[in-house]
Amino acid sequence: MSTSEETKPKLLPTKIWKCRNAECKAWVREEFAVESQVCPLCKGPMLRSMRHLPAVQNKAKSQPRKKKDEF
């Protein structure tokens, strides 16, 4: 294998919302979309679709909470 093949992330079919306006290139992963499906750029309607994208870890790692007297 060449080094470029080794560094390519594995692509997975991912549900997305994309803008219906052909001139607008906006899209967002379904898990990051807001409830109102309005394009954040042109304010047009969004359409459900699929795209092959690298996997993302969307869970924030929780920081241990400090006690009140440790500020």
UniProtKB/TrEMBL annotation:
<protein>
    <recommendedName>
        <fullName>Cold-shock protein</fullName>
    </recommendedName>
</protein>
<dbReference type="InterPro" id="IPR025916">
    <property type="entry name" value="YdjO"/>
</dbReference>
<dbReference type="Pfam" id="PF14169">
    <property type="entry name" value="YdjO"/>
</dbReference>
